[in-house]
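ASSEMBLY PREDICTION REQUEST
Request ID: AP-0331
Submitted by: J.K., bench scientist
Number of chains: two
Total residues: 827
Priority: normal
Notes: Please return the full assembly, not individual chains.
Input sequences:
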Amino acid sequence: MLRYALTRGVLLIAGLLVSSAIIFFTLRVLPGDVAQLIAGTQAGPEQVEAIRRALGLDKPLLTQYTDWIGGILHGDLGTSQLSGASVGAELVEKARVTWPLALMSMTIAMLIAAPFGILSALLRGRAGGTAMSVGAQAVAAIPVIWAGMMLVVVFAHWLGWLPAQGFPRTGWSTPAKAFESLLLPAMTIGIVEGAMLMRFVRSATLQAAGQDFVRTAAAKGLTRRQALVRHGIPAVGLSIVTVLGVQVAGIIVGSVVVEQLFTLPGIGRMLVADVGTRDLVKVQSELLVLTGFVLVIGFLVDLVHHAIDPRQRQEAD
Amino acid sequence: MSRFRTPRRSARLTAVGILAIGALVLTACGGATESTTPTPTGKADPNAELTVGLVLEPTNLDIRHTSGAALEQILVDNIYEGLVTRTQDNQIEDRLASSHEISPDGLTYTFTLNEGITFHDGSALTSADVVSSYEAVKTDAAVQGNTEFAGVESITAPDEKTVEITLASPDQNFLFALTGPAGLVFKTGDETDLKTAENGTGPFTLQRWSKGSAITFARYDDYWGQKAGLAQVVFQYIPDFTAGVNAALDGSVDVLTAVDPNLVSQLEDSGQFTITTGRTTDKATLAFNNVRAPLDDQRVRKALRLAIDHEALVEAVGAGETLYGPIPELDPGYEDLSDVAPYDPDEAKALLNEAGVEELDLTLTIPSFYGTTVAQVLVSDFAKVGVSLEVDRVEFATWLEDVYKHHDYQLSFVLHVEPRDFGNWANPDYYFGYDNPKVQELYAQSQAELDPDASAELLKKAARIVSEDDAADWLYNGATLTALTPGVSGFPKDSINSRIDLAGITKTAG
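STATUS: Completed
Returned structure:
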């Protein structure tokens, strides 16, 4: 187990390094630079050059890259070229919106996926099961942005129950208001993600139904359905955890769109704004943190799997 | 994951763009009427807090090094002050200086400082602070206004209350340059991190900035002049126009600036708001690349101008006035040049025929934060004369790189918001690529001219030539709509996308 964890850990670090290089160098392809934006349209070339120098943009790319990585190794994610603020501090601040949003989205997704997935598996072959299955397929295909707009129309404009935009200026010091303003965005991601997950839960449940231990249970006098519910579904749990890990990336991408749509001051919106202003030091650190987050989740999922699933353990050790 | 669509462009992206504020006016459609100023229902409350809804948040507060209307709009006069400032209709008036004098040869400017001026940290402002601030502008290319100080020979302080600036040659624009960021006075050797904090002399201090949402100012009680009429002002940044209107309707803002003309009726219908229409120096400029075929042919440029129905365009935009030359009404040298390019599609076709380019394909490069209205109108107007226009929407950073820096474009659209920026037409290196020695000479004369009226006459002549050369088309002069709740009085009306002077604003209790 330890050997597996170590090998997997080395892979994780290598993955991070490769990602950092890819992030850094591909961002440099973008036209336009932050110095020009700071200088504006009345500035002469000398002024732009002076700003470039002040920001260290005149240094060779490789030096800029190693400076950045060096900083991160010392726990410093860098400073925004535009605002002069610490990137780490701002990430933490924006995470206060994005993580609760992701968590709420995930919860909503699970609340939809688990019961409906199992139910539609149990009702396989009947009209209800087919309808659920088809419905899930349709919902999963909805673009997040459209789902968001529909929810706004219904819950904000027609019913007037929830705010359509923004996050309270007071933040989480008014928890009820903050929670309220995250509800529609979280539903937007949660419903679409939930529909995708539901199809997975359904097929995993069906698969479990075909397993020997379920059949054995049925042989001991349970009905097929009882056997599935008592013995099959708990076994499905583990694979759902795996898929959830993979879904985290999807939820982060979803939050970029949703934060934009609902003007939430989160990581997604910060990222879009920073790309637009070519605040590249900030963008690259933000992207690396997000990439790291997804990689670490993958790492943890693998470890859990490895610990629980005997077949994998034999293969690896 | 490919299921997710590209997010809608955030208006915040534009915050650094010096042209950006004008974008707000542009996305606009519909009609706006001017109403009377609000009638206060009670006595002004000195402890009142005012919430102002704005669209574009600054990216940082360092007005010394960062250009941008969003910064100037809130910081100048409120937090920082210069020796002189400008009124809503762009007239120059004394601020930190109690008086100023220009020597008869136009070379020496002598300023006398007001009494009792203190920085927000409590220290007194002296002429030495002015000298060090202006020396920095003159010597450090990274400081805003450096180019405007190119002609400054010396900055001295004969005594604690006097500042003397000497120019190498007369510069009619110099005093006006001092009304902008170049003229602001900072404490000598100040260690304040200007990106996130301040130490100005204005009637307000920076209290809090929650990035991505709001900036709060508090009254500076030791202010040297007339103290502010409000205890606190909150600038609430709402990048979405509809959200802004919603915020106004549910009472979360007292004032909403840059109202989309399309949405103004919602505010009017509620009966809770007064709408003012303010003049600006925003020039919606359709730039032609004067050095690249086919736009190096004046007949083509003229034809394009004649093909545009300017009245209809202004109607479609929803606010603003037609403008047929490079100088707007609020700047010296303005003249109605509508006779130069009247709407005449037949003449346009004839000119294109004459130039031998009947089937013309052109590309318009436009920053993506501008709405679609202008591009749509141009596409349809040009189609009527046989010109097909492809619209290339780009990020502002890309626009700066391709169009502004590398002059790689055919047609471009941006709002040039700076007042008195005619000099760009006298600069052949500017992205317009317009090079007319006569205009350059007239501009130089206008700057060297000591008498302001004579200077304006020279600018007027030069502006007419630029327009007659069809160096560009000026689609319209932007206007800005502001919605005010009753009880707010003294809120400025004109030029508020470059300056919101808060000191004279009051709000009644309740």
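REVIEWER COMMENTS: The radius of gyration of chain A is 24 Å.
SIGN-OFF: pending second reviewer
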